[in-house]
Structures are given as structure tokens and as C-alpha cells.
Design a protein that fits this description.
This protein has about 350 residues and is of the alpha/beta class. The protein is built from 11 helices and 11 strands. A 6-stranded parallel beta sheet has the order 8-7-6-9-10-11, with helices on both faces. Strands 3-2-1-4-5 form a 5-stranded parallel beta sheet, with helices on both faces.
Length: about 350
């Protein structure tokens, strides 16, 4: 019997790519002889370092693989790998074009992500509504492999041993305190907790715990440096580590506090408890961090803001809803964090 070789498409974004990992863990555990090739960006490769039998194809989307002709060249590269199955976990224009190129090859089994766009549109329309939880994104990924003939159960998921901690000398972390990661930024302002409120959370939690700040890029680092200098037990990990080492550090946390954003998913992948904060978006849309209890998702007050959620991705905010996240009191965040720390044992 010929060996099975699945090519997996998932190019972006970081949080969505991170959500693939628990599914691929279950897949490789249930089908150890299956080979995987992941089509993704170079910077995302460390997310999958733990997986066996995995190779990567890194597209040059703004170079030789740009446009229709470039995607055709990418298709030819992928075809030469002799896949038996293709799993499109992205379902965007680029991956649709690639799937179209593969259509004549009927012996290669193909399946693509069902994004549930109609249901998401109903839950984000600008009117008061009753929230009905949609299929979580991670289960939608699993459904793709089921359609390919590889049914998996996320109930069987097992976390691997935590990776070794990177050298933290530069951060001067207190080894005798519990480590709380805080990622206060988000890609869109509609899902970012106001920084003045988050500073109150940081200031309180650092009294008895070690707070480690996470962000992306120079501008975020500058803001977080202010907090790190202002408080004794706050360290800023932004831009200190390469991505692979940053993942190792995240894996050591006792708790992560994040927006509806990538850092929450990265922490959840290592079994770290995550307190997530939701503004324009909402956990019912299916993007809550993997394996987290419902109580860990703190949402803006829908009594005051009945049109929430207003967006799947946080990029659309209803008029007058700009301050919706201020309805989540810092005290609420702090109490949720302390409760979770009591329950979680490092």
C-alpha cells in the first residue's frame, strides 16, 4: 500500500496557523505513517517543530510565486512532491487557485475548510441577537482531514512535554514567583483592551508574580518598555528572542493573559491556562484558545453593547462601540487571573 502524503495549506495569520497544531498532533498520533508537507510562511515553521514526518514548502508570495503565473509555478513544485491528499485549511484566493490547478489530478484527494461564513455573518450583523456558539475553528480543521479519510478525535489530544526554557538571563526573571505572560496588543483596535486599564492589571499582578510582556515589533516594544521600567517585577520579552525561543518561553508560563490574538493560541498549544479578553469579537464565533474553559473568556458587556460581536476578526466596530472593552473592569481580569493561578500547578 502506497504511503500517504498530505500537503496542508495554511499561509496566515499567526493565530490561525497556531490553531492547526493540536489537530496535526492528533493526526500524526493516529496515523504515524502519514507524511505531511505544510505550505506556510518561513516564520511559522517553529510552531510545528515537534511534529514527526513533516516537511515544509515556503512560498515566495511577493516574488516568484506572485500572481496567477507565480502560483502556477508553486503548483508545479507541489505536484513534484507526489501528494496523495491535499488539505486546504486556509480557503483564500491563493489556495483556491492552487486547488483549481490540482483539479485534473482526480487521484489526489482534496478537501477544503468550511469557514461557515453565512453563520458568522448572522452573528456579526448590526442588530441585537441571540448568540449561538458556532463550530470552533479547530474542529473545522479536523473536519477537513475527516473528509480526506483521516478521522481524528480532539478528545484524544495529548500535550507533549514542555520544551526547555530558553536563557532568561537578559530578562532577569524571578524564579521563585509564578510567571504570568501578558500580551496587551491585537491586530485591530476593536479587540484591544485599553492600555490604561491593562496597566492597572500589570501593576497589581506584578506585586506577587513575575509578569512577562509579549508583543510584536518596535512600536509595541517601546510601549511595553515603559511598563517594564516602571515596575520591578515586569519584564519585556518583545524582540528579545527569535520566534522559536519565544515559544519555549511561552511554554514555561503559569498563565497567559491575551486579547483574541495569536499569543493566546500559542500558549494554549502548550497547555498553559489562558485568560482571553474579547471586544468586537466573541468566543462564540469559534476562535477561543484550544482547551480553555468558557469562564476564561472575558467579554465586553452585551447589556450595554447588544450588537456585539460586530466582527469576526475585530476589524469592524459599530458606531458608539469604540469603548466596549472598558466594560471589562481591571478587577475582573485580576480576579480571573488569580483564580486560574490557584487551580493551575506548574
Amino acid at each position: 500500500m502506497a504511503a500517504k502524503h498530505i500537503i496542508v495549506f495554511r499561509l496566515s495569520a499567526l493565530g490561525d496557523v497556531a490553531m492547526c497544531l493540536p489537530v496535526l498532533r492528533c493526526l500524526t498520533q493516529a496515523y504515524p505513517d502519514v507524511r505531511l508537507t505544510i505550505l506556510t510562511r518561513e516564520r511559522f515553521k517553529p510552531i510545528f517543530n515537534e511534529l514527526p514526518n513533516v516537511a515544509f514548502v515556503i512560498p515566495e508570495l511577493y516574488g516568484k510565486h506572485k500572481g496567477i503565473l507565480g502560483l502556477y509555478h508553486l503548483f508545479k513544485t507541489l505536484k513534484q512532491l507526489h501528494p496523495t491528499h491535499i488539505a486546504d485549511l486556509h480557503q483564500v484566493l491563493r489556495t483556491k487557485v492552487l486547488m483549481t490547478y490540482f483539479m485534473p489530478y482526480f487521484w489526489i484527494k482534496k478537501a477544503r475548510l468550511d469557514k461557515g461564513r453565512a453563520a458568522k455573518k448572522r452573528l456579526t450583523r448590526p442588530k441585537a441577537k441571540t448568540l449561538v456558539p458556532l463550530v470552533p475553528q479547530i474542529h473545522r480543521y479536523a473536519q477537513v482531514f475527516e473528509r480526506l479519510g483521516f478521522p481524528i478525535s480532539l478528545d484524544t489530544h495529548e500535550f507533549p512535554p514542555r520544551p526547555l526554557c530558553p536563557n532568561t538571563e537578559a530578562l532577569a526573571l524571578d524564579q521563585n514567583r509564578k510567571w504570568i505572560g501578558i500580551a496587551p496588543f491585537a491586530a485591530h483596535t476593536g479587540k484591544q483592551y485599553p492600555l490604561d486599564l491593562m496597566q492597572q492589571v500589570v501593576a497589581f499582578l506584578q506585586r506577587e508574580h513575575q509578569v512577562i510582556l509579549f508583543g510584536f515589533g518596535r512600536e509595541e516594544r517601546a510601549q511595553l518598555d515603559v511598563w517594564a521600567k516602571a515596575y520591578k517585577h515586569v519584564a519585556n520579552a518583545t524582540s528579545v528572542y527569535a520566534f522559536a525561543a519565544e515559544l519555549q518561553l511561552i511554554a514555561q508560563l503559569d498563565l497567559m493573559i491575551s486579547m483574541d490574538s495569536a499569543n493566546g493560541h500559542l500558549a494554549a498549544n502548550y497547555g498553559v491556562p489562558v485568560i482571553s479578553l474579547w471586544g468586537a469579537t466573541h468566543p462564540c464565533l469559534g476562535f477561543a484558545p484550544f482547551g480553555q474553559p468558557e469562564k476564561n473568556g472575558l467579554t465586553a458587556d452585551r447589556g450595554q453593547y447588544p450588537f456585539l460581536p460586530t466582527s469576526v476578526y475585530g476589524n469592524k466596530t459599530h458606531k458608539g462601540y469604540q469603548d466596549a472593552m472598558r466594560s471589562i473592569a481591571p478587577k475582573t481580569v485580576i480576579e480571573a487571573a488569580l483564580e486560574e493561578l490557584e487551580e493551575f500547578k506548574r
